[in-house]
Amino acid sequence: MKFSTAIIVSTYNWPKAxxxxxxxxxxxxxxxxxxxxxDDGSKSDTTQLIEELRNISPIEIKHVxxxxxxxxxxxxxxxxFAMCESDYIIQIDGDIILHKKFVQxxxxxxxxGYFVSGKRxxxxxxxxxxxxxxxxxxxxxxxxxxxxxxxxxxxxxxxRRLSNSKNPNKGIKGSNxxxxxxxxxxxxxxxxxxxxxxxxxxEIAARxxxxxxxxxxxxxxxxxxxxxxxxxxxxxxxxxxxxxxRTIDEKLVTCEKGLSQYMK
Length: 264
Fold this sequence. Notes:
The protein is an alpha/beta fold. It has helices at residues 15-26, 44-56, 73-83, 102-109, 125-133, 154-160, 181-186, 200-210, 237-249; strands at 5-11, 34-39, 60-65, 88-93, 96-98, 114-117, 121-123, 144-145, 163-165, 176-180, 214-217, 224-226. It contains nine helices and twelve strands.
């Protein structure tokens, strides 16, 4: 089955991390058809970086931006989805560095009727700072937490097959997810009622599952590395938990304010 693929990267005011993330896309054994940077209101230094990256990119880079008005990841991701022209979307964060076979792995395990949730390993603070100073530096394996999350064993993975679970809370990482665009359009994308950090990825996964799309939890492939940063504010987490619980309990498939408002 042949299909086109997009990488969509969410970012906010951290150009050094974004540079590492996008350059890791350039190094892929199989390149995506397009890169979409979903920018939640970054300053001009991020725009300047994106222009520099466009000049050296082997594929098209699209940049969607809106003004900084607090955490509005759900909105900017929906705008990015609307801009996407590819069949299959691989979603990462702008503080994620990809293994060189990340895209290849995602393409090889893509399957109709499924979305994918992958793993990541955390890079410690010291190593994260070194990488930002020298973007061409290789990641030191011994500077990783949860090292077994990023051991690539594709044959063992194939033997074990995939763990399909209908529990939307288990193993979901918005920094390493993949889904068919048609499935995202069907559920109306992210719920923009979730206006701060927390559970927005679990909520969209719950609606995918409610719509009949099953989850693949991937180990030993689709590897990614997470740069160190301080934990985001969790002040609105209780409200987000209520929205997630409602989605699960009422088996909701769509959301009222989502992707459809940006589709042509």
